[in-house]
Amino acid sequence: VLSASTPGLSSTRQLNGTCVSSVDMELFLHYSLIPSLFIILVLSFLQRREHRKQRDDTSHLLGNRFGIIIPLDFVGTFSNRWSYGIAFGATANKVMFLFSEGYQPLHIPQWAQAFVLLIGGMEVGLSHFPFFACLSSEFRLVSSILGFSYSLIWFAVTILYIIQCPHGQFLGKYETVMFYWPSLLCLAFLLGRFLHMFVKSLRVHLGWELQMEEKPFLEVHQAEHVKRLLRKAPLQETKKSWFQTRVYDWDPCFQFPSRMIGTTVLAFICLYLFIVIEFCMFMYVRDELDVFEGELENYIASMNQTGTLTPVILQVKELMNVSKGVWLVTILPASLTCVSYLFHILACYRKHMKRLWAGNKHFLPLKFHHPSSSKSVVAIARYSGWQIAYILWGYLIIHVVQSLCGLMIMYSLVLPVVHNQGLEMLQGLGIGTLTISIVLGLMTLQVWIATSFFLQPKMSTADKQKPLALNNRKAFHNFNYFLFFYNVLLGLGACLSRLLISCILGTWLIARIDRTIMQNGYEGADMGFSAWIGMLYVDHYHTNPVLVSFCNILITGHRERRLQQAIKYWCLNQSAGPRVSARSRTRWLLLQTLVNNPKLVMLRKSRPGHSSREFTQILLMGSES
């Protein structure tokens, strides 16, 4: 039946079933470690170690070469963010390969599966390490050549694999293209990026352009944030567009780190690949169900539709057809839900970081106000991987829940109309709606009676509600007694509604790693939320603009002092202006701070025998003198 109805599709699958490519992507992953290690060694040889300890062994022969190279700074990198994000996107196919647990190089027992996945993850990371290392290397000319060559190898091999077997066994034509075009796009971007780096570094090497300054310790947006805090009068707010008011408002004093951009890009591509894989599985299951449905039709035809199982078979066929349609339709809302979660998580990251910068921790559960330092360090390593896994599993769970809701709507509203049972459906719907309305009305009536008869009047006309003071106590006790037995039955429905709402919200928010689905007091059991909080604290402690600005002032002052000490006749430079003692300078800065912030006078420590006001007056008199 299937081959007769879809001959083109079956011939395509037979063709792809016999297609054998000369390129094995899994085998190429293993062999790619050779050029990857070569690039790592070259960059490590160029990287000089800042602190070298002299020892008696042969390690002194290396000099200060072979320094440690890093792929990227996961905490404080704000430049070149999209290049790192695209480099993460190039690893999407291999990440999905690991996610499906397809990495099985050896036959091992089940208990050692975690070690194999760990080895697989390290191999994937090592094979893609040159992308990140060449982007972040200080030796732009050499790293651009190495990065371009390595990206070209991956691009050429992927193109060759797609050309040899472009079709697949599930989606038919161009199935392989649908799987690999995101990685190809990312690799093409990296080729252009490394080519741009090569041209720019070559112009610098030839003296046609000036050498770029080294990476600043204080980023521009961090300095602007501190300036905004120190500004007395707030800036006049410009008129915001509809998108800024309703969806997202840009902040020029805030930038997402490279880790967040890379995680979001990789999550988008992995979500797309996961949806494609799920659709392939749906096509396979649908074909199997079509074969099974054909066998059921043959059975009904052989029994002349008079068999005892005919009604059951018809219901099973209807269930299969409805399930296939509902599952296909709910792909779009489930995917849009997860895509909106990715954008919303970025918005929540900015909101939470700004609250932590302001010293506000009230949005966090009480037990997370002082998290463990070691767990926070581990959390920032876990966050990116866990965020992607939460999005993928969250999509699948949300898809299942939406499909179940679609089945309920079909069987309660649509199918009765199709089977000419619309009046019965409307009658049952009306009775159910009336029952729920009466229950809710009685609950509202209890609140109205309590407000009108059992509470004392307002103490002031400005009060929003009556005080919590009982009135008409005898009537109140009779009211409680007679409603006691009814509320027992009402509590059963409230309990079931609580369970239903918890299940719906829990499954709907399962992909939100920034929000816990645990009840108050059990947030520590949510490992994803704990990783989110630990990551926030690490970023807060290491990228706080005020702290970074303060450290930048210290570093700049230290460099200036060392520069002055290096000048042989620095006293000649100081003779142009009057000498100022350190004590007078400190008092002057303290005076300026107290004048700009009068409330700090009451908070200052006072000398023994003097109040804070008297000490401030002494300070002012001393500065004037």
Summarize this structure as a short list of keywords or feature phrases.
single chain, 625 residues, mainly alpha, 23 helices, flat, disordered N terminus, Stimulated by retinoic acid gene 6 protein-like, membrane, cell membrane
Task: Write up what this structure looks like.
It contains 23 helices and no strands. The chain starts with a helix and ends with a helix. By secondary structure, it is mainly alpha-helical. It is flat, with a radius of gyration of 34 Å. The N terminus is likely disordered.
- Helical segment count: 23
Q: What structural class should be given to the helix and strand makeup?
A: mainly alpha
Q: Could you say which overall geometry the principal axes of the C-alpha atoms support? A: flat
Percent range of helical residues: 55-70%
Calculate the mean pLDDT score and round it: 81
Low-confidence parts lasting 5 or more residues at pLDDT below 50?
A: 1-16, 572-577
The end-to-end distance, rounded to whole angstroms, is 105 Å
Describe the sheet with the most strands.
none
GO biological process, one term: establishment of localization in cell
Membrane topology: Multi-pass membrane protein
Protein name: Stimulated by retinoic acid gene 6 protein-like
Keywords: Cell membrane, Membrane, Receptor, Transmembrane, Transmembrane helix, Transport
What's the topology here?
Layout: H1 2-5, H2 7-17, H3 25-31, H4 33-46, H5 81-89, H6 92-99, H7 113-127, H8 129-136, H9 140-164, H10 175-205, H11 220-230, H12 242-246, H13 258-302, H14 310-329, H15 331-357, H16 373-418, H17 422-453, H18 473-508, H19 527-543, H20 545-566, H21 570-574, H22 582-596, H23 612-624
Helix pairs in contact: 4-8, 4-9, 5-10, 5-13, 6-13, 8-9, 9-10, 11-20, 13-14, 13-15, 13-16, 14-16, 15-16, 15-19, 16-17, 16-19, 22-23
